[in-house]
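Review form for a predicted model. The reviewer records the input and the model, then writes brief findings.
Reviewer: anonymous (R2)
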Amino acid sequence: MKKRMLLYFGSFDPIHNGHIALAEYALDKDLADQVALVISPQNPFKADVLQTPEYARYEMVEMACKESRYPERILPSVVEFVLEKPSYTINTLDYLKENHGADMEFSIITGSDIWARFDEWKDYERILNEYKIYVYPRKGYEVEKFADRVTILEDAPFVEFSSTEVRGKAERGEDISAMVSPSVSDYIVKNQLWTPAGRIVRLTSMIESGDEREVLYIERGKCYFQHNEWGKAINDFNKAKAINPDSKEAQQLHDMVYEILSFRYKDIYNP
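Model under review:
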């Protein structure tokens, strides 16, 4: 008999207690023999610069899995790390079926917020036809598309927060211990993930490696702005404008910082 493997795709940026609760729920309900948390190194719907490096996300997923109720059955998967980027679900499914289909039967679990855009996925009809799909509810998102072709997990644990909220709290230096596992919380603090200082280091490393994209300078400029490093912020917004003279965001951010400086230091900027 084939092993039933439930694939839980996500950026997991970071993984939080809600993700693990859903994986545990799936096993409690006997939806699968194992759950694989498939970390997407580059989500086609997200800018890569805004994502935490894949190795860091993997390490956090690995820690959270080990601290779950089923450490031998909830596992991190890096299969998409070795596939072409960006990560398309159908490509991953084809790879898994070709290499492990003889021993494993694959199914998918996803949230209703992600499902709302399912018809934008590459080869979504194939996925619908070839795989069993479970959809769990997310606040503000009803399962409307293809509702008769999926299993809706009405009694799944409701996730009150998102990875975006975890990142926001970490950025503000607030306590996230109720949202992520102990080891993940420690990892985030130790590595200064999502703090302006930590992001400046990462963005600078990317720029110094030769990556001269406009978005890198905009994002680093925002971090400098949060640190009240006005001059460095303006310099980065100017560099972004030099790369893309039509960048409205870079121009608006530049003007905002200049306005703040003009107001605070009238003697210098308005003699």
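Findings: Residues 113 and 141 are 6 Å apart (CA to CA).
Further findings: The longest helix spans residues 248-264.
Recommendation: see findings above.
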